[in-house]
């Protein structure tokens, strides 16, 4: 993928924002377990950073996804994993379907303020009994007059305690699990919404994560995104951008982890020499650098396919799988070379180690990615398994 001057300038702008506006506050937000989403996103919206690949008529830049890739990679310079994830929810997880399939009225009311940073948004798909198995969600939306009446609950909702609205996957009918679902914009200040349960996580500490309960929540039927019954398919399309975004944000953060580890290993003395002088150490660091570069190349190739209209499902799934596994491998190895200092809670490598564990779980677990890849390779068993297929395999 060829990077232009414009790509590099966008990257530079985002890196400057991360270094000036985010990194100085990470320790404070990590300790508090929450970030000031409205404040940060408004400043990003003022810079035009929340709608890089969104339509210009709603305040976006109208650029292709290669520019969003640069945005995501630059966010990886953040000294935690939680803020790139939380910002990515706003740009690449909760809004792609609305931008592509929403009515003009709905996009003016909800997409434009999200791009401007005037509203904070969430994606609400997962439930306590349906994480990667998207087809098994239980939340229902039944018609009553001109409204949907929504009942159920949503789990692990990033930005959930602060969001103004959520792009929510709900069951709007009976029938096959992949054809009875719809995406609906649900204002989270609506009567019957309870999102007081803030979840306590192993990592990604500075992004707030909520459990949301919905008790007879009334939402106008005009808040439906696209066609009723197409929600599962729309969500599978959103997952492609989410997975590319997640892989991209991992790259420069891992490069920073590696660079910091090299410097520490060079200065740390053991048995009369620098730790870096051990052949195993510098050979291992070379292997890790190679793994990061392979993730970068794969992510760029997947993005190139995506922007040129080719089916990027397999490569996007490979990116997601590779990002999770490389993140775990790099942060674990780096922490080892830091020794006891790496085991200290406040150490940035320790934080990266905690944060990176989510990459193999959220947005579709590694096993789901493997199932998608196997299906697209044509290597799944020809007979139907006795258990339910992972949700994404049916897409």
Automatic annotation (TrEMBL):
Keyword annotations for this protein, in alphabetical order, are: FAD, Flavoprotein, Oxidoreductase
One GO cellular component this record assigns the protein to is: cytoplasm
Q: Which cofactor does it need?
A: FAD
All residue ranges annotated as the Acyl-CoA dehydrogenase/oxidase C-terminal domain in the record: 229-375
Q: Which domain of life is it from?
A: Bacteria
GO BP terms, alphabetized: fatty acid beta-oxidation using acyl-CoA dehydrogenase
Which Gene3D superfamilies does the record cross-reference, listed alphabetically? Acyl-CoA dehydrogenase/oxidase, N-terminal domain, Butyryl-CoA Dehydrogenase, subunit A, domain 2, Butyryl-CoA Dehydrogenase, subunit A, domain 3
The record's comment on protein family reads: Belongs to the acyl-CoA dehydrogenase family.
Record's SUPFAM superfamilies?
Answer: Acyl-CoA dehydrogenase C-terminal domain-like (SSF47203), Acyl-CoA dehydrogenase NM domain-like (SSF56645)
List the Pfam families: Acyl-CoA_dh_1 (PF00441), Acyl-CoA_dh_M (PF02770), Acyl-CoA_dh_N (PF02771)
Gene Ontology MF terms: acyl-CoA dehydrogenase activity; flavin adenine dinucleotide binding
Domain Acyl-CoA dehydrogenase/oxidase N-terminal stretches: 4-118
Sequence ranges assigned to domain Acyl-CoA oxidase/dehydrogenase middle in this UniProt record = 123-217
- Is Plastid among the key words of this record? no
Q: What is this protein called?
A: Acyl-CoA dehydrogenase
């Amino acid at each position: 993928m060829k990077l232009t001057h414009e790509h590099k300038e966008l990257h530079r702008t985002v890196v400057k924002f991360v270094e000036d506006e985010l990194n100085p506050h990470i320790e404070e937000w990590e300790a508090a377990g929450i970030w000031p989403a409205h404040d940060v996103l408004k400043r990003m919206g003022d810079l035009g950073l929340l709608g890089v690949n969104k339509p210009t008529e709603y305040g976006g830049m109208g650029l292709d996804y290669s520019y969003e890739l640069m945005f995501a990679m630059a966010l990886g310079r953040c000294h935690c994993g939680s803020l790139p994830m939380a910002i990515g929810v706003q740009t690449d997880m909760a809004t792609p379907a609305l931008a592509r399939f929403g009515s003009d009225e709905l996009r003016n009311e909800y997409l434009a303020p999200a791009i401007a940073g005037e509203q904070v948004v969430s994606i609400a798909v997962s439930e306590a009994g349906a994480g990667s198995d998207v087809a098994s969600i239980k939340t229902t939306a039944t018609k009553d007059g001109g409204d949907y009446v929504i009942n159920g609950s949503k789990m692990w909702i990033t930005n959930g305690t602060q969001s103004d609205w959520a792009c929510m996957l709900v069951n709007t009918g009976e029938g096959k699990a992949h054809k009875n679902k719809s995406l609906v914009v649900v204002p989270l200040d609506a009567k019957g919404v309870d999102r007081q349960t803030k979840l306590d996580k192993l990592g990604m500490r500075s992004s707030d994560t909520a459990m949301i309960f919905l008790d007879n929540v009334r939402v106008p039927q005009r808040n439906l995104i696209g066609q009723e019954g197409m929600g599962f398919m729309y969500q599978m399309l959103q997952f492609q951008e989410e997975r590319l975004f997640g892989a991209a944000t991992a790259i420069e953060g891992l490069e920073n982890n590696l660079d910091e580890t090299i410097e520490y290993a060079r200065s740390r003395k053991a048995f009369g020499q620098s730790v870096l002088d051990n052949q195993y150490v510098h050979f291992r660091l070379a292997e890790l650098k190679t793994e990061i570069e392979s993730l970068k190349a794969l992510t760029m190739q997947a993005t190139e396919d995506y922007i040129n209209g080719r089916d990027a499902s397999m490569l996007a799934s490979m990116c997601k799988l590779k990002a999770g596994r490389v993140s775990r491998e790099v942060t674990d190895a780096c922490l080892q070379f830091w020794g006891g200092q790496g085991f200290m809670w406040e150490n940035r490598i320790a934080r990266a180690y905690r944060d990176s564990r989510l990459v193999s779980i959220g947005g579709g677990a590694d096993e789901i990615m493997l199932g998608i890849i196997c299906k697209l390779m044509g290597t799944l068993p020809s007979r139907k398994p006795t258990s339910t297929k992972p949700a994404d395999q049916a897409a």
